[in-house]
């Protein structure tokens, strides 16, 4: 039996909530309260920050190895800050997130009952979220397993003692065989937990954002319904006016939905891109110096997640343009009355000023922004590398 789009969407949300619940951050639950899991996750994050701080102190004062400082800054200023921002973003705006999710459920349940065209676009929205869910799961698994595996293989081939990341734990000496083994195991566990937490955060953020594109398809279906009324019942102006009002109300709902998503995800996206930029500069620099074998995995993860968000931002921009194009080309203007044309024209003016998501207050979230950041990462890394080489 074929599942309805709303059922498929609820199943994905159930998985997202399960992951968020394990991290103590299932803010989609109306009865959510800070619990023991929340405290434990925050404790792990703070403990990891302290380990990074200890590593920086130890590397400068004892070992005199500044490359370990860069690795510690990469993980602390990159991954840990990113995970912390996801968690705080959820915990400080739970009501808005719940309203957005409930509104998405209503959107699916209301429109899937109309006809197959509506269900087609709703299924496309679920398919997009499913693909992103699988991509995020794959690369977070690669992050959690790959960094440890690459380091173990590297040590076996070259018979060295290189840690997964240059972060030392207080009271454990990694120079001894036992201390090295314990440090490796603990680092593997912390990276696995961190990868799972980042996955839960990404899915919680993307669940409602990805549904912005679904509005555009439903909007086209509503315009089709309006055209059918204009052709089949040209004298029934009451019915056509009612259909047009429904279209305008739907567009207002879309504007409200995208604006609230912008507000809720603003700091999460900004911090994610800032930490990704910082982490990638540090990682590529360490790779060029040949001091971090597992850095290749971390670099692949950061680049992938950056472009996942950039791709979603570009799709939202395309959806915004699609509203304008649909109004121009998808409506039988010559069949509309003067009042109806004026109403539709006003909606088009508003549609032309719709903003998408952004990185910070000014930079649009798009693939072009991702490419510009990639160029900046390359330039910064080469500048540092040339400075060290001189």
From TrEMBL:
Residues passing through the membrane, by range: 39-60, 66-84, 137-158, 178-200, 269-292, 298-316
Source superkingdom: Eukaryota
A GO BP annotation: signal transduction
GO-annotated molecular function: odorant binding; olfactory receptor activity
Sorted UniProt keywords: Cell membrane, Membrane, Olfaction, Receptor, Sensory transduction, Transducer, Transmembrane, Transmembrane helix
Membrane topology summary: Multi-pass membrane protein
Keyword Membrane: yes
Record localization: Cell membrane
One matching Pfam family: 7tm_6
GO cellular component: plasma membrane
Family annotation (InterPro entries): 7tm6_olfct_rcpt
Family affiliation: Belongs to the insect chemoreceptor superfamily. Heteromeric odorant receptor channel (TC 1.A.69) family.
Protein name: Odorant receptor
Annotated source species: Stomoxys calcitrans
Gene designation: 106094895
């Amino acid at each position: 039996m074929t599942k309805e789009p709303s059922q498929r969407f609820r199943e994905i949300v159930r998985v997202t909530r399960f992951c968020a619940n394990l991290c103590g951050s299932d803010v989609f639950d109306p009865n959510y309260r800070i619990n023991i899991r929340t405290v434990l996750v925050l404790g792990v994050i703070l403990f990891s920050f302290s380990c990074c701080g200890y590593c920086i102190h130890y590397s400068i004062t004892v070992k005199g190895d500044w490359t370990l400082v860069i690795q510690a800054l990469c993980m602390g200023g990159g991954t840990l800050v990113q995970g912390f921002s996801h968690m705080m973003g959820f915990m400080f705006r739970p009501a808005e997130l719940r309203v957005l999710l409930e509104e998405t459920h209503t959107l699916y349940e209301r429109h899937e009952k109309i006809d197959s065209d509506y269900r087609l676009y709703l299924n496309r929205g679920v398919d997009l979220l499913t693909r992103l869910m699988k991509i995020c799961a794959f690369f977070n698994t690669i992050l959690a397993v790959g960094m440890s595996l690459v380091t173990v293989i590297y040590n076996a081939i070259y018979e060295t003692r290189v840690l997964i990341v240059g972060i030392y734990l207080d009271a454990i000496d990694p120079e001894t065989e036992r201390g090295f083994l314990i440090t490796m195991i603990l680092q593997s566990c912390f990276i696995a937990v961190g990868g799972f937490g980042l996955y839960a955060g990404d899915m919680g953020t993307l669940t409602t954002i990805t549904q912005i594109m679904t509005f555009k398809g439903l909007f086209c279906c509503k315009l089709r319904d309006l055209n059918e009324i204009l052709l089949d019942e040209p004298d029934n102006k009451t019915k056509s006016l009612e259909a047009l009002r429904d279209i305008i109300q739907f567009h207002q709902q879309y504007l409200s939905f995208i604006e609230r998503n912008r507000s809720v995800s603003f700091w999460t996206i900004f911090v994610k891109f800032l930490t990704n930029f910082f982490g990638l500069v540090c990682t590529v620099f360490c790779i060029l110096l040949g001091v971090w074998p597992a850095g290749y995995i971390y670099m692949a993860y950061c680049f992938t997640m950056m472009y996942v968000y950039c791709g979603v931002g570009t799709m939202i921009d395309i959806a915004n343009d699609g509203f304008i194009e649909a109004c121009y080309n998808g409506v039988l203007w010559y069949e509309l009355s003067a009042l109806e044309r004026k109403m539709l024209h006003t909606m088009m003016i508003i549609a032309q000023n719709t903003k998408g998501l952004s990185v910070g207050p000014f930079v649009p979230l798009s693939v072009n922004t991702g490419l510009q950041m990639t160029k900046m990462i390359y330039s910064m890394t080469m500048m540092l590398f040339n400075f060290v080489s001189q």
